[in-house]
Amino acid sequence: MTRGEDINIRLTGFAVNVIRLCARLSGSPAGAHIANQLMRSGTSCAANYAEVRGAESRKDFIHKLAVVLKELNESLSWLTMAEQSGLVPSAIVHPLADECDQLCRIISASIQTASGRKKING
Question: In terms of C-beta density within 10 A (0-12 exposed, 13-18 middle, 19 or more buried), how is residue 107 classed?
Answer without folding.
Answer: buried
